[in-house]
Write a structure and sequence with these properties.
Layout: H1 3-21, H2 25-32, H3 36-44, H4 51-60, H5 82-102
Length: 105
């Protein structure tokens, strides 16, 4: 998975989570300290939110942060930059620990 594909997938996951949550871009923007326009850009893949904002977006649409990130283990030959791959792996690991503590699978 290349960086562009990764970012497009994140954009799609954010949009889908927002729609499932039944909230507006304006609502998500307010919760994340962003404008509706920024959320529009994020959902279209033209703007990439920093990890902190992505966590606030996840909270606004009531999902785990990891739910907004593509799973890299599905892409064994990942071309994703090492720094991004390490960040994604860390988020997935933390989400797995939290789910284990809550007794979820």
């Amino acid at each position: 998975m290349e960086e562009r594909e990764f970012n497009e997938t994140v954009a799609r996951l954010i949009r889908e989570a927002r729609m499932r949550a039944g909230v507006t871009q304006e609502y998500v923007g307010r919760q994340a300290g962003l404008t509706r326009g920024s959320i529009t850009n994020i959902e279209s893949g033209t703007q990439i939110p920093p990890l902190y904002r992505l966590a606030l977006i996840a909270a606004a649409v009531n999902v785990e942060l990891a739910d907004l990130l593509p799973s890299l283990h599905l892409h064994e030959a990942s071309g994703l930059a090492t720094r991004h791959a390490a960040n994604v792996a860390a988020v997935w690991a933390q989400a797995s620990k939290q789910r284990d503590v809550r007794g979820q699978s």
